[in-house]
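example protein:
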Amino acid sequence: MAEIPVRPLLLLGVLGLAGCTGLPDQRLAQEAMARGDTATAEQNYRQLADLGYADAQVGLADIQLETGDPEQRRQAEATYRQAAATSPRAAARLGRLLASKPDATEAEQREAETLLKDAMAAGEQNTALPLTLLYVQHPQTFPTVNAQQQVNQWRAEGQPQAELAQVLLYRAQGSYDQHLDEIERICKEALTVQDACYVELATVYQKRGQREQQQALIAQLQTAYQNGRVPPQRIDSVAQVLVDPALGKPDFEAAKALLEPIAPSYPAAWVSLARLLYDAPDQDNTEQVLDYLQRASDAGEPRAELLLGKIYYEGKLVPQDPAKAEQHLLKAAATEPSANYYLGQIYRRGYLGEVNPDKALDHLLSAARSGHASADYALAQLFSQGRGIQPDLVNAYMFSQLAVQAGKPEAPAYSTQLAQQLSPAQRAEAQKRLQAERQFRGDSTMLRAAAGGDVPSVEPPAGGTAELSPQRNRP
């Protein structure tokens, strides 16, 4: 009689006794996740994960990742790694995580490619899109890869997600508008299996001004959500399309009608509703905006703290209050790069009574290294204007060059002005620091989404600590 491996036998015993002894049960974990009971799901997944079962490790890591907390994200990466050697599903998830990691090193980017390719070969379906994103965002890491040729090959092979990968390439290439008919065809065919297509179709109809088609799509989306086939994040994404003035005439009422039903169970929607009203023209929505944000804040949503901080920073709806802005922004800074940008500006400009260059540097550098487009320009101003510190034109020029790379409109003229004040030796030193900073960032700041992820260390590159430390003016 063949010997039965100990671990599978143990698992059979655990699962068989779960109902009467309270031992961990993966089925119970999955059911708990389906009804939103993450605590019960995590408890069951964790106990099975500790026994070494890959599916449970994947389930636990999924929960860790969904929190949005940087430390939980690191734990999710470690948990996926435990299962990746034996589980293609875990390998695919780890590959996707590394591919989207804001501060991923070149080694991690290459590891992501290997993991995703191996998972694809093993039959995992959700691999073509993250691979395409990896190639588009990091061409310097994959100089021999032609993303379009790779996608063409996947399409010819019938690889899952290959058609959506082509849509992603159209976005990256700036040719989206020239392929609206093809995008519509692709996404209509894939709508039942790729819910991201709701966003693409909504974009197509918004660009064309096709209200009837848009309304029919929204009705289909709402039905899919009610039947549990679409996550609330997809509702939120479609709502953002409806109010984006760059895509067509905004439809605030339609977006509001999408968001309000999901907000009680998906607190991020309260923030989207507040943002919608905040941006709506010619309306006095202050009380409603603050109510939405308070509900989101009560639910622990960091984006609510970010928007509350921005409101008090700008003084658009309420009187400007830097102290309140700081209070809210500090709560959001761990996960929201924009919060670090606004904090840096508060400290740089002395809004709390005096300039604090050390805090300004910490927060602005964190925002810049997380991909915030305006943070490098603010750093250039910090080092050039000398408010509370001795001016350092070498650092100012270096950051102005990074601001040019990030696409800040004012940056080219400002950088040229700074360059004219530098000696040849200073320019050489600025180029040296610029190269070090680009290498530290992986040269990918321009391509990062602001969307979440780890906040990188604000420590300067090796050997650059002294160079990036502002020197205070002395009386």
